[in-house]
Amino acid sequence: MAFLVLDRLSKRYGETVAVDQLSLAVEKGEFVTLLGPSGCGKTTTLLMIAGFVEPSSGAITLDAADLLATPPRRRGLGIVFQSYALFPHMTVAENVAFGLEMQGVARAEREKRVREALALVGLAAFAERFPRKMSGGQQQRVALARALVIRPRVLLLDEPLSNLDAKLREEMQLELRQIQRSVHITAILVTHDQTEAMALSDRIVVMNKGKAEQIASPDVAYEAPASPFVASFLGKTNVLPADVRAAGEEAAVTVGGAVWRTAAGVPSGAASVSVRPERISFAAEGGLGGIVRRASFHGAQWLLLVETAAGVVTVIRQNSGGPLPKEGEQVALSWRAEDMRVTAGSGE
Amino acid sequence: MKATRSELAPYLLSAPAVLLFAVMLATPLAATALLSLHSFGMYKGIQDVYRLDNYRDIFSDSYFYEIFGRTFRLALIVTGLAIVIGAPEAHILNRMRKPWRGIFLLVVLGPLLISVVSRTLGWALLFGSTGLVNQGLQSLGLIAAPLQFMYSETGMVIALTHVLAPFMVISVWASLQRLDPQIENAAVSLGAPGATVLRRIVLPQVMPGVLSGSIIVFALAASAFATPAIIGGRRLKVVSTLVYDEFLNTLNWPLGAALAVLLVLANVAIIVGCNRLVERRYAEVFQ
Fold first, then answer.
1. Residues B188 and B200 sit within 8 Å (Cβ to Cβ)
2. Nearest CA to A24 among A37, A36, A33, A12?
3. For labelling, which of A143, A254, B90, B165 has a CA lying 20 to 30 Å from the CA of A5?
4. Which residue on chain B is closest to A144 by alpha carbon?
5. pLDDT-flagged residues of chain A (< 50)
6. Residues A26-51 pLDDT 10s
7. With a CB-CB cutoff of 8 Å, which residues 172-191 of chain A face chain B?
8. Domain shared by A181 and A72, yes or no
């Protein structure tokens, strides 16, 4: 049995369903992210694990014991809140020591562990500071140290990086992952930021309207999205109308006049294909013809909008120094048949 | 010319308020202070002299010490009780759900909507020796003789606490609302039981609210007039009723003015002193 198990967990507020029959099994030491837009039920799920929200139905077990029967303060979970929720009237050391004090850890041991926890997050020199005199990133580290010092069974992170600026957020992502690995702790992260989810997690739970749309490793969820929602939420994708002609083992997929040959799988008729922008290249001839309407520069890459017979297609090219078409230029788009996902029906 | 006009703007804009305070507050205070230096004779009336005789009389008479002592003892006890009752009341209000919170806030503020005189007279009826409380307790056989609420310090403390506790509730409630609701959850997740969360996490953070509430309650209790006058009667005087008697009964205006000035000074000194003390103790919360 897995370490932390959510079994058909639901939360209803009157008529609205916040979390709908969510099942999830997390292994010890695993980093799992609940990812979804706001209002998808990811934070409610986290709060149910923490014990601050009572589930309407379903069960949660931790280490084969019923977690719902345990009051929040005895669950032994470390929580990092979005607002950090540091105690403003206590120094950093007092903040971190609070949980140990509640556990009745002796003073000498307490001081040693506080020092260790602060060293782990790189704040050894800030023990006597007050939280308000620190930057957002530093407060974030204090919150992490405070949650880790009690040696929690599971670390819960509620949008912990959303209040930091972009550069700091990237640094903290790396650091968070490295700390989680080094103390080998099971972690559940809640976020709406897909890059953050993909950079940090072993597995991602993509949530929409209270339901888990897909539970998979980041690369699988990205390459083989289980639903159109997952495809559009994880990264950018082009969804184009297509026409399928199946003939025996093969099928011909026509997109805006250009034809791809794939293995059969989708019945003949109207269909839609989705292609990631970074899998599209410019062909010398053949492929889907179009005109570059806009080219915008993003440092490491170029983003081009190409108007074709199948609609506007987004293309992302690495800024590798090679020649790129200019705005207004006539181009032909091509991609490998295996980079394209075909679904029956004329789109969503 | 334009530059000078924009430099003058702040002064011109604040002039109406300054004028209001100068006329309505500073002038009467200064007049009272001046009046306190005059002398008074039974047959000569008020003499236009400037001496500290009134103050010397007050400081050399144990009668005044007793009244000042009673006034500040009362104010201190009332402030303490207002904290003990008002702070938990604010916490409970803050925890209430939508419709009830508004309703009970109105209940708490209710007493302030009634005139102080009629409210206090109501207390007198309730707590008199033949009042509802005493008759009830007597008929239940809990007490043999009526309890003395009227004309006692206990009665004054009860009545003043009732009137002034709402100020504490409002003030603490305001600072409770500024609290990050996740902070309590954070403390719970670290293993703190409810009482510990209140004592070590919530209370220190609402100290600014408790302090400003205490200042309001203390200042109002120390200078309260109607409640001590009705419940304390003519014998149990406090400074404000004493000032009233000096002005309107013995007609010794200069002495009354001196007493009033001393009341204001003592009030300011105590409040500023306490303020400093608490602000230093909870420096981090007050930023």
1. no
2. A33
3. A143
4. B186
5. 347-348
6. 999 999 999 999 989 999 999 999 99
7. none
8. yes
**Could you give the CA distance from residue A91 to residue A127 in angstroms, rounded to a whole number?**
7
B21-35 confidence digits (pLDDT tens): 999 999 999 999 999
Q: Which residues of B touch A (CB under 8 A)?
A: 180, 182-183, 185-193, 196, 200-201, 204-205, 282, 284-285, 287
Q: What is the token pair recorded at A235?
A: 């990264």
Number of C-beta neighbours around residue A13 at 10 A: 10
Question: Cβ of A128 under 8 Å from any chain B Cβ?
Answer: no
Q: Provide long-range contacts, Cβ within 8 A and 24+ apart, for A117-124.
A: A117/A145, A117/A146, A117/A148, A117/A149, A118/A92, A118/A93, A118/A145, A120/A145, A120/A148, A120/A179, A120/A182, A120/A183, A121/A145, A121/A148, A121/A175, A121/A179, A122/A175, A123/A92
Residues A207, A267, single domain; the answer is no
Tell me which of A212, A233, A254 is where a domain ends: A233
Whole domain around residue A266: which residue ranges?
Answer: 238-344
Q: What is the CATH number of the domain that holds A111?
A: 3.40.50.300
In this structure, the number of other CB atoms found within 10 A of the CB of residue A63 comes to 15
Give dist(CA A280, CA A299) in Å, integer. 19
Q: How far apart are CA A15 and CA A9, in angstroms?
A: 17
Which are the contacts of A77, defined by CB distance < 8 A and separation ≥ 6? A49, A50, A51, A152, A153, A154, A155, A156, B189
The DSSP annotation for A270-288 comes to EEEEEE-GGG-EE-SSSSE
Burial of A254 from C-beta contacts in 10 A (0-12 / 13-18 / 19+)? middle
**A25-A30-A33 Cα angle (round to 5):** 75
What are the backbone angles phi and psi of residue A210, rounded to the nearest 5°? 85, -10
Tokens of A324: 């790129």
Q: Copy the structure tokens of residue A55.
A: 């589930």
Give the ranges where A135-251 is alpha helix by DSSP (H): 136-148, 166-183, 194-200, 218-223, 228-233
Tell me the nearest-neighbour CA distance from B127 into chain A, angstroms.
44
Q: How far is CA B246 from CA A255, B250, B254, in A?
A: 102, 5, 9
Total number of domains constituting chain B: 1
| Residues of B whose CB is below 8 A from A78 | 189
What is the ipTM metric for this complex?
Answer: 0.81
Residues from chain A contacting residue B187 (CB–CB below 8 Å)? 87, 98
Read off the tokens for A112.
């040693």
Minimum-distance CB partner of B285 among A52, A83, A89: A89
- The pLDDT tens digits of the residues spanning B186-239 come to 999 999 999 999 999 999 999 989 999 999 999 999 999 988 998 888 788 999
Same domain, A74 and A192: yes
Please indicate if any CB of chain B lies within 8 Å of the CB of A83. yes
Question: Where residue A334 sits, what CATH number does that domain have?
Answer: 2.40.50.140
Among B188, B196, B205, beta carbon nearest to A89: B205
Query: How many contacts (CB atoms, under 8 Å) link A and B?
Result: 65
Classify A323 as helix, strand or coil.
Answer: coil
DSSP A62: E
- Pairing mode of beta strands A31-35, A203-208: parallel
Q: According to the model, what pLDDT value does residue A348 have?
A: 46
User: End of a domain among A204, A233, A262?
Assistant: A233
